[in-house]
Amino acid sequence: MKIGILTHQYINNYGAFLQAYALHQAVSKLFPDDQVEIIDYVNIKHFIINTGGWFRFYKNYENFACWMQKIKLPGTFAKARNTHMVLSKTVYNAKQINALNYDCIIVGSDEVWNFKDSKGNAKLKFGEGLNCKNLIAYAPSVGKTSPDDMLPDYVVNGIKRFKALSARDDLTFELAKKITGKEPTRVLDPTFLGTFPETNLPVKKKPYIMFYYCEKLPVEIHDQIFEYAKAHNLAVYGAGECDKRYTEISVNLTPFEWVEMFRNAEYVFTGTFHGAVFSILNRRQFKVYLTNESRIKKVGALLSELEIPNRKIGMDYIFDLELQKEEIDYDKVFQLIDLKRKQSREYLKTAVEK
């Protein structure tokens, strides 16, 4: 059997890379005798906009040295894809995908069903134009799309074509249920199903506090975290991001170096879904500050599902590592994760074998 994974693997983003890598790894372990590959479908518009974003210079918090490292990231991601991903030949449309003759196509994960995203939306991720009879959705996300929104015909008709449906968040679950009249299987993001190789820590100083896109965090909270770090001899880093105040530049990271940053952090502050995921996977104490509507929905659903309370930062938040270093009971959390991992793998195996 020939199995293809259709996702956002071409995006220069750590979560996008790692979820694609992990899903391929999970499917390959379930079907070791079959050919499994990530379909190297590239949405040119999405790729160009995403790549171009890394060349912006933000004078308020970047310096020239940081920017010079940041603009190397598209090349770093390209090398990582070519080295660590099992990719098909590059394709740009449904006709070229059909020519690869897949017996099964798994669509997901990431925001592959966010049809409101004009730069990343692709009708073929709803199955339009694909001849493959066995279409499976694994942990797709619709972003901030509500089931009550006006839905294009290709979304409705496309989702009805899938032989197996699953969702990783509440909005995707509700949308699929509304369209099909059936509840999709709730599954974990594929990063929970993967293992990621250890590598050298790409920064010099430990212990450290880490930020990953904790955007628009109020200045007074940001300042008191840095003041606490200085008073307690802690370094402060950004994983794959820039700030003049960080202890050293740590922006041009490979995906596995990025994971290593989470493994070694004393505490994490993030504003993204995969920032929360990799804090959890590495049993890190963390807080989230969410301003993006899509991330509020996705991260909120994740924390609720794993029964991790009180992760949001309020205006009265005061950071104290000693008081907060045992807030999350990870033994309890991983009992849930292990159960959901088993259910997620069972869904994949059953769906592919249909």
Describe this structure in words.
With 354 residues, the protein is an alpha/beta fold. The protein is 41% helix and 10% strand. The protein is built from 13 helices and 10 strands. The strands form 3 sheets. Strands 2-1-3-4 form a 4-stranded parallel beta sheet, with helices on one face. Helix 8 links the parallel strand 7 and strand 8. The longest helix has 24 residues. The mean pLDDT is 95.
What topology does this entry show?
Layout: E1 2-6, H1 14-30, E2 35-38, H2 44-53, H3 64-70, H4 73-84, H5 94-98, E3 104-107, E4 135-137, H6 153-161, E5 166-167, H7 170-180, E6 185-186, E7 208-212, H8 219-231, E8 235-238, H9 255-264, E9 267-270, H10 273-281, E10 286-288, H11 293-305, H12 321-324, H13 330-353
Parallel strand pairs: 1-2, 1-3, 3-4, 5-6, 7-8, 7-9, 9-10
Could you tell me the number of beta strands?
10
Mean pLDDT: 95
Radius of gyration: 20 Å
Which stretches are low in confidence, meaning pLDDT under 50 for 5 or more residues running? none
> How are strands sequenced across the largest beta sheet?
2-1-3-4
Strand content: 5-15%
- Shape descriptor reads globular
Number of helical stretches of at least 4 residues:
13
The span between the termini is 12 Å
Largest sheet: 4 strands, parallel
| Class based on secondary structure composition and strand pairing | alpha/beta
Helices and strands, in N-to-C order?
A: EHEHHHHEEHEHEEHEHEHEHHH
Helix content: 40-55%
